From TrEMBL:
It comes from Volvox africanus. Belongs to the nucleotide-sugar transporter family. UDP-galactose:UMP antiporter (TC 2.A.7.11) subfamily. The keyword Transmembrane applies. The keyword Membrane applies. It is found in: Endoplasmic reticulum membrane. It is a multi-pass membrane protein. The chain crosses the membrane at residues 55-74, 138-157, 169-186, 244-264, 298-318. This is UAA transporter. Keywords: Endoplasmic reticulum, Membrane, Signal, Transmembrane, Transmembrane helix, Transport. It comes from the Eukaryota.
Length: 330
């Protein structure tokens, strides 16, 4: 009876985490696309500072995580001696700033659905670089998954709805997809840098990482916006269109809450469960773009979406099976 209650509690907690991630990032996706394509006011102005969304989100996440981190330190649940130094994150903060900014810039050139799909195929460059640079070998199923994902993105990009493309600020698929792949490359370095920090500080807290990663990211975005004048443009735009400010605040809050759910899911259920949850969530992001924001997909694009997510889900299940086999062997 006790065991069944424990399992039931674990399932309920997992469903709570899934609901939190879905609610946060599905809402954020709708708002993100809304800001990218909407025209505000009588002058039909576009929101042109999309990259500023990441900076605003970083400030919100830094404050949010900072409050939680201080509470954990005061209650003794986290020891300051176990943590990395706040300045250890400065390099990862650079790529965490530049990469997502490229992804945001891409929304001026390609649709939100295309951006989500392109950013989902991280395993393709990782495997290619592994083979070419390090001579790594993968299983046949991994090569099949990589091929499915690559061909799926190609099928999606082959032809899109002229109605949807017409809503973009500056339609340019080649530039948009290139920016997404640059985003993936920088994300790869960011992940590697974070892993290196965690290797040197084995008991480092995820909340500590969330706090100081966002601090450096916010700092770099702040310097960029100050130097480029985009910060003044952003404030001026929000003053003219208060409804845009509401969208930006909602975007930031969703990101902050979503990050906490992701960290909690990884800590409680492991990275593989989190990967599967986030992978399926991206499919619903695309579905919401079609149904909620009125951006229909053509038949070749639905085929591309199906190919990419089949490859991603099979890859996730394969990793889960391999990890389970290793545990049994131990």
């Amino acid at each position: 009876m006790t065991e069944s209650r424990r399992k039931l509690g674990s399932v309920a907690l997992l469903l709570f985490c899934v609901a939190g991630i879905y609610a946060s990032y599905l809402t954020q996706g709708v708002v993100n696309e809304h800001l990218a394509i909407k025209r505000y006011g009588d002058q039909q102005e576009r929101f042109r500072n999309l990259e500023a969304l990441n900076g605003a989100q970083a400030v919100t996440c830094f404050i949010w995580a900072g409050i939680i981190l201080q509470a954990l330190l005061l209650t003794g649940r986290v020891s300051s001696s176990d943590l990395a130094h706040w300045y250890d994150y400065w390099q990862a903060g650079i790529t965490n700033c530049v990469g997502p900014a490229c992804g945001m810039f891409a929304l001026k050139n390609i649709t939100y659905s295309a951006q989500v799909l392109a950013k989902s195929c991280k395993m393709v460059p990782v495997m290619l670089m592994g083979v070419v640079l390090h001579g790594k070998r993968y299983t046949v199923l991994e090569y099949v998954c990589m091929t499915l994902i690559g061909l799926g993105v190609a099928a999606f990009a082959q032809k899109g709805s002229s109605k949807v493309m017409g809503r973009l600020a500056s339609p340019n698929p080649l530039l948009g997809y290139t920016l997404c792949f640059v985003n993936l490359a920088f994300d790869g370095y960011t992940n590697a840098a974070q892993d290196h920090i965690n290797e040197r500080h084995r008991k480092n807290s995820p909340i500590h990482m969330m706090c100081w990663m966002n601090f450096w990211t916010a700092l770099y975005y702040g310097l960029y916006m100050l130097a480029s004048g985009s910060g003044v443009e952003l404030v001026s735009f929000c003053a003219r269109h208060p409804d845009a400010l509401v969208d930006i605040i909602l975007f930031c809050l969703c990101g902050a809450v979503g990050q906490l759910f992701i960290f909690f899911t990884i800590k409680t259920f492991g990275a593989l469960v989190n990967t599967l949850v986030c992978t399926t969530r991206k499919f619903f992001n695309i579905l919401l773009s079609v149904l909620w924001n009125g951006n229909p997909l053509l038949s070749n694009q639905w085929v591309g979406v199906a190919m990419v997510f089949t490859g991603l889900v099979v890859q996730g299940l394969m990793k889960s099976k391999n990890k389970h086999s290793k545990r049994k062997a131990e």
